[in-house]
Amino acid sequence: MPKLIFAAADPRPDRWTELFKRELGSAFDVAAWTDDGRVHGADYAVVWRPPAILFEREQGLKAIFNLGAGVDGLIGQPGLPAGVPVIRLEDAGMSAQMAEFVIHQVVEHTRGMGVYRQQQRDGLWRAQRPVEREAWPIGILGLGSIGTRVARCLADLDYPVAGWVRTPREQAGIEVFAGPEGLAPFLARTRIVVNTLPLTAETQDIMNGTLFAALLPGAVVINVGRGDHLVDEDLVRAITAGRVAAATLDVFRHEPLPPDHPFWKMPEITLTPHVAARTLREETVRQIVAKVRALEAGEAVSGVVDLDRGY
Ligand code: NAP
Ligand code: GLV
């Protein structure tokens, strides 16, 4: 009987294993992995930042499912078995969450919501000028499962939207810039930059002083990718110098963000604790189970990570 193990630091792994059992049915064995020296003899592992010992023990894996969209916590890991496909989550309910998170932050700035909060405190009834969308060109770094949904939703609200990707292509309603040579013209037309890139050797530290200096004046930085995309000191400097007006940060180099980090005290920065798009249990289990069934039937599946490319 094929076996699936669940290995993620979740206080209630039973909520996952029960759901996997329900969706896979009695023809599959499902168990929560624990570091107790036992070899489960698993065919499939569902993991989030697993300990290397898991791969030492489970030598018969046919596929490894990453319990998130970003695989940066998995693919650099020593012991990851060569030749076993790593499959990431593709959307699984995350793109809608990310789109609403980013729209919320965009509207905060374009509609001047902070001004209205202050006016309420001051007892003032005063309308600001209507938003001029042309004054707020938005640039999305990465147009994958998540970035595309974010870009489309913002384009539907009539903001000028561009995206930056590796592979050149046409995308309706979105101006697409590609490759290293496409980055400068992309930044030169961007006032709100939203990072939805995966963390790879090529994208690490990409949000740095040079990038901030290339944005339009009054820039807003939104990072929902990974903390290691952002050079923290460069953002602090860019805000202090007035080159960047505000930032929303959901991901950090060290999570939880250390209590003495300067970001906590900067009024220009909005912080959230890596919640822009949560892994949703039902959607996630359904997606993984469909792929497990396809693999068992000898079919190809999407979402297989290119380990050389890093995403
Ligand atoms: P994805 O589908 O793999 O898309 C990645 C996008 O980035 C693609 O458009 C890709 O370009 C582009 N890209 C990658 N490397 C590039 C490079 N060197 N230059 C230019 N473009 C590059 O990934 P996804 O599912 O959208 O997820 C993206 C990331 O979001 C995840 O890796 C994770 O870090 C983050 N995330 C955060 C949260 C949160 O709660 N904060 C939740 C979920 C995910 P091509 O299209 O040309 O390949
Ligand atoms: C969350 O950050 C994910 O990568 O799914």
Instruction: Classify the fold: give the CATH topology of the largest domain.
Output: Rossmann fold
| Sequence stretches where pLDDT stays below 50 over 5 or more residues | none
- Give the cofactors and ligands: NADP nicotinamide-adenine-dinucleotide phosphate, glyoxylic acid
Output the structural class.
alpha/beta
Question: Total helix count?
Answer: 10
User: Strand order of the main beta sheet, please?
Assistant: 8-7-6-9-10-11-12
Question: What is the element layout, followed by pairings?
Answer:
Blueprint: E1 3-7, H1 13-24, E2 29-32, E3 44-47, H2 52-57, E4 63-66, H3 72-75, E5 86-87, H4 94-110, H5 113-122, E6 138-141, H6 145-156, E7 161-165, E8 175-178, H7 179-188, E9 192-195, H8 209-214, E10 219-223, H9 232-240, E11 244-249, E12 269-271, H10 281-296
Parallel strand pairs: 1-2, 1-3, 3-4, 4-5, 6-7, 6-9, 7-8, 9-10, 10-11, 11-12
Bound molecules: NADP nicotinamide-adenine-dinucleotide phosphate and glyoxylic acid (GLV).
NADP nicotinamide-adenine-dinucleotide phosphate (NAP) binds at residues 69-70, 94, 142-147, 164-167, 196-200, 202-203, 224-226, 250-251, 274, 276-277, 311.
